[in-house]
Batch of 3 targets.
Target 1
Amino acid sequence: MTRAFTPPDTLSKDDIRTIADVRRDIWTNAFWGLGVGSLSGAAAHGLGQLAQTRGIVRGLNRNTAFLSVLGGGALGSFLMATAAGKNQVHNLHPIFEVGKKEIPPPRDGTPYQRALQAAQENYFDAGKQRQQQQERDVVSTARQQAVVSSAYADDDFNIHKRRLNRVMRRKTLQSTFERGGLSDSHGGSWVEDERSGRH
């Protein structure tokens, strides 16, 4: 048995009658829609056949007639039942409230409110940490600039050091080219070459 025959004890006889009236209205409109849609599908197919005799449309036969009637019936039934349900739902709103239990919210808030509060606290804590990190970065950058500026204070020493590095790089490149040039494999020297003494 369905629940329609055994409604809950919380519903009054008027509530049960209202639910039955809404259900009956939806089913009645669905069947009206089935009839109207089927007739509309048949009429549309008849107009299509008329257009086919004049050469505007091709390919209509009894299969397309069957499809038109069934498709129109299904569409009409769906549309009229949906419209009836939407028009009658306001009668069910008081019934939705029957048996409703009022639950007072907890003192510290609902789980959603607690999660929201924790997320906001984490967001503000992260903002403070980000600001502190930026302040530390500024101080660190200032210290590094001070170290760099003191290192470059003696220009003569730095110029001499750069010239010495340039000379060393040139010697390294020259020795690399003398040994066989630059190579991606084994630095330009092979094991057999080292054993035989060839370069």
Target 2
Amino acid sequence: NNNNNNNNNNNDSNHYKHYSISGTGKRSAVHMKTNTGHILQTDVPKKMGGDDSAPQPVELLLAALLGCTQATAVYVGRNMNPRLIIDRIEFDNMEAYRDERGALLLEQPSDNIMDGGFPNVPARLLRVGGTVRVHFKGKQGSVEKEVSEEQLRILGEQTEARCPVANMMHASGCEMDLQWINGSGS
């Protein structure tokens, strides 16, 4: 029985998707290139010591969440029965919150970096929220208005469970408060 578990674990790597990125940082900015040839940059606002020349890393994390949610929702919808064909998704008022003390506070004796101390407040995002407005296509490209609340609920739950970015954020303890709304006909 142990051999069966080991064989299954060894075969898991056959299903791994690989991502790779390289970058160079100067001051607070980083210029990066992905293994697929895309260029990314991050920086922080001037008040935080940067030049404000690119999005902040957390803004790119939110962008990754939107991109991953879009791609995953299209996939999930196509595989539902009946199929839900998504025309487009509008992401409204997507916001994230974190307690800055987790990254910035160095006033507590336990926060002393040189002594190996860590902040008493987590640096991670605490909450991400916003509206996910889904517009569906019907037959011959017409707007589909007959998506039930149950179908929309399942689409949202399955998308959030299968989106690697949302999954990672949720696993970190971040509260995910996305409101899924049927945008067809509006």
Target 3
Amino acid sequence: PVKRQGVLLKTSSTWGQCDLSDLTKKNVAYFMTLNQEGAWVEVDFLCGAIIPVAYSFASAHPIYSGYYPRSWELQASLDRRTWKILSNHINDETISHASPFGFWELHYENLPGLAQYFRYFRIILTGPNSFGTHELQISAFELYGRFLYIQEDKAGPPPPPAYAEERTGFEDKEELPAQPKPPKKKGGGKKR
């Protein structure tokens, strides 16, 4: 396991000198598992949970190109015991040499009336890659959705903005205008 910027990363295996932290780097990096059926990578949001609406990842390597995932599942869990399939891909050719990034919206069933938060996410290879083997080559994995910051099993205040030193132009902004007052009732008299 590798702990990186508030998440814990795990994998079924690591090929050669690959660095598991490349899984969540913003640039295209070069993480790959060994050639084994059911290869997987997992992200644990240690102090948070997400209602996911979309996800993306890249698959590229300067030497070993062509190991693009074709069949996989994105699974999620709140307790790491019960997993829900959020997205199932069979022979998906979104990622290729010409386009090493993929983006997918999520459309899954929630419990009636409830949005479901998840803490753990994993991508599991469910079939051979584009080379016909079972290495999972993946990097720049991102989840999009609503994040709930959790501290000591209780919802807490949000963490400071990520990369705050890189954000500019937000200082000295005017306060938002006051909330509008409700409209006055017409007629003004009592009804009998």
